[in-house]
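quick one: PRP bound model?
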Amino acid sequence: MDATDIAQDLEHVLYTAEQVDGRLKEVAAQIDADYAGREVLLVGVLNGAVMVMADLSRALKSHCTMDWMAVSSYGSGTKSSGVVRILKDLSTDILDKDVLIVEDIVDTGLTLSYLVQNLQSRGPASVEIMTMFRKPEAQTSDVDVKYVGFDIPNEFVVGYGLDYAGRYRNLRDVGTLAAHVYS
Ligand code: PRP
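yep, here:
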């Protein structure tokens, strides 16, 4: 769906599908250049990263492989503890592999901070992070993100994989929700 299909649900559009696509191609070119001569293993973090993974992998001009993890904040359902539970682990051994974690958003940074530590302990050649969106004002955890699509304000955003109550992941554009949707 496009923003025009659900205009009444959105407060404003932050990035159109075209802007997301354009920026993703720039990031893909940077990744191609940085990994020249090496084959990167893209690790997508379910569920939000599905759209980024599909588009980033196809924008690359080099070979890559893909795997997935699903994680959840431990216990309370919030991420404040920083303790992350693995719901689905990788299917592949990452020993000596160049791993690039693919995310839709880095908010507090707690999920990525945990994931990087966890993957580093498995003996990969390298572990880096690519995220389509990052909220610098919300970040509390020190995590080194190598590739960022867009830095965005600390607002609740939906679209391009980002959900509210499970919805809006299939919105091509990225925007903020109108108050009536969540109040
Ligand atoms: C989102 C996102 C990251 C995490 C970032 O996932 O995909 O994994 O939150 O938040 P943090 O930086 O504060 O740790 P979410 O738990 O919403 O699950 P989803 O991908 O299924 O939407």
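The longest strand covers residues 64-73.
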